[in-house]
Amino acid sequence: MKIERTDDSTYTIPRQGKMRVPGVLFADGRLYAGIDDGACLEQLMNVACLPGIVEASMAMPDIHWGYGFPIGGVAAFDMEEGIVSPGGVGYDINCGVRLLTTGLEKDEVQPRIRELIDVLFAAIPSGLGSHHREFRLSEKEMRAVCERGASWAVSKGYGDRGDLAHIEDLGCIGGADFEAVSQRAYERGKDQLGTLGSGNHFVEVGYVDQVIRKTQADQLGLYPGRVVVGIHTGSRGFGYQVCSESIEDLMPATRKYGISLPDKQLVCAPLKSPEGRRYLGAMACAANFAFANRQMITHFLREGMEAFFRRSAGELGVRVVYDVAHNIAKIEEHEVQGRRQKLCVHRKGATRALPPGHPLVPESCRNVGQPVLIPGDMGRYSYVLVGAPGALSRTFGSCAHGAGRVLGRNQALKATQGRRIEDELSRQGVYVRAAGRTTLREEFPQAYKDVADVVRVVEKAGLALPIARLKPIGVIKG
DNA sequence: ATGTGC
Description:
Low-confidence stretches: none
Strand content: 25-35%
CATH class: Alpha Beta
Number of helices: 17
Number of domains: 1
CATH superfamily: tRNA-splicing ligase RtcB
Mean pLDDT: 97
Helix content: 25-40%
CATH topology: tRNA-splicing ligase RtcB
Radius of gyration: 21 Å
Distance between the termini: 39 Å
Largest sheet: 8 strands, mixed
Structural class: alpha+beta
């Protein structure tokens, strides 16, 4: 494989073999050296072979191996000639991150963090197969969740109207087709709305540890020492079911439309085909379910905090900074070689990033740019950035989404045999509660890259601008 | 990621 260093934040894999476009990897020397497994770069090249791909197959600095497409991948396809692929979105459709600010200071929360986390752990169902005992969606309600997303939750009293303006696409993407959702997916999802799930999903209570750009941080409500809450989850078993059924559904389509694939996991269908439309319609349902899920969790969090601190909602001031998807395919318009073009942008482990002034950035922060949320690992820190003009000109308005794994789950389990991660984290000032027995070992901090390295690259590449660094004090894991 | 696996 040929790969060239283009500049201080970019590597290029020139067209070779069946590649229709080059591969572009955003990384500097240090990060590139950390990619010891070439398999994810091969996946990057495989994506470049798909019909209708525009400009390049791209990967963010947090790239690692995924199903078919690499995680950290961005690929845009022409609406006429292009395809849509479930592997380009991932199993957890609209997995994403929401960040909340509060009116609380670190000093008043830290001494009581254990009790607070225990209260929140009881309020938010967590872990593999987590569900609600009583709350259950009828089929009619499930349809409404799929078609309306976060606004369904708000209309039922879960949260405030004002939350919606601070969610990507106002918490609802278009094109939802409930007829494309199976009975089995409904059955699996009906009691899972407002649950966390497992693996790398979390609710994290932390504080603003470092302000990097004060004007923008002030405008986002990120003041030094201010308590914040991060929520990372997606569409649970519902999205998983939609994805796995769609892969089955699209298998024959690949051959039917004469698409040759370098890897079976890249199963796809033309965007114009009935099969492609069906996937997009079902995917939108799962994406909207995930927006509603994060909205419900926000509500449970507010309720739990109000009871715990014995303060009113107004006094606590829990506000949504932003909610961004990082596993999704969306129809967007972008400028390609000087011309506006409608594209299907796949972001798999990549967030949207829009620069200051863009009409889709919420009015309250339009002059600073769309908040880009990049969580790190449980022990170190996370970053809040805002989109920069380079994202629109280079990556179809996309940026990195996290630290990226350096150890797979099994490797992490081996590396931590006999260790008590909760005790290690507690000594570092982070109180953790987890539902699963092995989750903390799978997710221990050193299983991930240092997210500061990822942030350095996206800043150098002009994709986003760091605004603040957040540190955790209490974490709920699944 | 996932009621984890043909």
